[in-house]
Amino acid sequence: MARLLGWCLVAAAGAFAFWFWAQRSVYFPSRYPQGYWELRERVGAADVWIATRDGVRLHGWWIAVPGARVATLHLHGNGGNITHREGHIRGLRAAGTSLLLVDYRGYGKSGGWPTEKGLYADADAGYDYLVQQGFAPNRIVVYGESLGTSVAVDLAARRPVAGVVLEAPFTSASDVAARVLPGLGPLVMRSYDTRSKIGRVRAPIFILQGDRDEVIPFELGQALFAAAPEPKQFWRVAGAHHSDIPEFAVAEYAARMREFFAGLK
Questions:
Q1: Quick check: is 14 in a domain?
Q2: Structural domain total, the chain
Q3: Fewest CB atoms less than 10 Å from the CB: which of 122, 189, 197, 220?
Q4: For 228-257, how does the pLDDT look when each residue is reduced to its tens digit (9 = 90+)?
């Protein structure tokens, strides 16, 4: 009996260790001074500091575009930090939107450590900052990239926005884990359920994904698009991979973004 109990404890400890590793493997933050911080001056960004509702101090960049009708809250993917998004900055700025890039807790110069609940709070803080700067909800676009697509959908499902852009999205972390580790993956990765929330979004949705995406299976982006309410559009970026759309399709990326922004009410 004692031996059986011992094996049970070992198994439980192993299962917990695997679960803990799986949760941590979601995030790959680059903390300051890692990154390309000289980019701030090149793109004309201003440092901003934002407090979340749970007391975490976030760092971000604000890029004002004269005459812009909308402001875009950019929620990046699970790797790097805001200094790794030069292509997005230049493309979105060329599309005519002002831009707020926020580093999640644990990324860049932001405090804390990333969790699913924490990232949702970080998105809320970015949204509130834009409202405090005078942008009405019908002038705020939320842009999610990879992991940030789930954060963007969570935000837009709860709060009014002008539009939602989802780059390389997925239906749920469980579905992604099932492709990486069939059978066991979905048992330990049950977070970021985007599909269950996207039906509550009440704003135009624009999904874009490279058809050579090696991280998020292309069919998961298509499945999320099928679950999304109208009005919606999908741009299949032929030849693009997971993280290179703004650089791969420079002119078309800016043009497509400009067209989406212009069509918002």
A1: no
A2: 1
A3: 197
A4: 999 999 999 999 999 999 999 999 999 999
Active site residues: 146, 213, 242
In the chain, the amino acid numbered 245 is I
Separation in Å, CA 64 to CA 70, 92, 130, 133, 173:
10, 11, 12, 11, 34
Q: What CA–CA distance (Å, rounded) separates 138 from 147?
A: 24
- Per DSSP, the residues of 81-114 read -GGG-HHHHHHHHHTT-EEEEEPPTTSBT--S--
**What is the average pLDDT across 174-183?**
69
d(CA 112, CA 103): 11
Cβ neighbours of residue 121 closer than 8 Å, sequence gap 6 or more: 52, 53, 54, 56
Give which of 232, 173, 168, 175 is closest to 198, Cα–Cα: 232
Question: 54: pLDDT confidence band, cut at 50, 70 and 90?
Answer: very high
**How far, in Å, CA of 209 to CA of 105, rounded?**
26
Domain boundaries, position 129: 29-262
Report yes or no on 157 lying in a domain. yes
Q: What pLDDT digit, counting tens, does each position of 80-134 carry?
A: 999 999 999 999 999 999 999 999 999 999 999 999 999 999 999 999 999 999 9
- The domain that holds 253 is classified in CATH as 3.40.50.1820
- From the CB of residue 59, how many other CB atoms can be counted at a distance below 10 Å? 19
Q: What value does the CA radius of gyration of the chain take, rounded to a whole number of Å?
A: 19
Q: Is residue 1 part of a domain?
A: no
Give yes or no for residue 208 having a pLDDT over 70.
Answer: yes
Within-domain flag for 57: yes
How far apart (Å, rounded) are the C-alpha atoms in residues 204 and 184? Answer: 36
